[in-house]
Amino acid sequence: QDMAQALASRVAELEATCAQMNSAREAELRAAAALSALVVGLEAKMIMVEKKAAQDVKAASDKAAEELKKRTEVVEKEAKKRIEAIEKSHKTETGSLRSELSKHGSAHAKTADLSSLRSDFQSLKSSLETRERIESRMSSSDSVSAPPDGL
């Protein structure tokens, strides 16, 4: 009978301990479920923030590409105007040189005016070189003005 009472008392202790452990386990499961729900919510927020950041980056790069395109168009127009002005000036200078040459018919006058013609020739040559540099820059800026792929 003592043994039965001791066993019954031990069973009661074990049942109480088991109930406590089950209660603690259920509390841990509830806490784990709450943390899991919190993680899912944070992951969803993080995905939305990443999408928004990607949209912002794309919008900023599109805007920068558009501004670059506009600036390039303006620079191209200005360069074309400069080239046209240089060509016009070149034609005018060439015409005036030809008319001056036609006025001086004698060999002596041609010889005396040779140094002047050389300086005029050098001036025309530098004008043409300037024009070629501008055209070269325009053609190289055309290849730079294209926005990089993927933006």
Q: Tags for this entry?
A:
151 residues; mainly alpha; 3 helices; 0% strand; rod-shaped
Task: Give a summary of the structure in a few sentences.
With 151 residues, this protein is mainly α. It is 92% helix and 0% strand.
Structural account:
The structure is a single chain. It is rod-shaped, with a radius of gyration of 45 Å. The protein has three helices and no strands. Helix 1 packs antiparallel against helix 3 (114-144). With 151 residues, it is mainly α.
- Average pLDDT, all residues: 85
Question: Helical segment tally?
Answer: 3
Q: Percent of residues in beta strands? A: under 5%
Shape: rod-shaped
Radius of gyration, CA atoms, in whole angstroms: 45 Å
Strands, count: 0
User: Stretches where pLDDT falls below 50 for ≥5 residues?
Assistant: none
Along the chain, the helix and strand elements come as: HHH
Structural class: mainly alpha
Query: Main sheet?
Result: none
Name the helicity range.
over 70%
How far from one another are the termini? Answer: 87 Å
Topology (SSEs and partners):
Layout: H1 2-103, H2 107-112, H3 114-144
Helix pairs in contact: 1-3
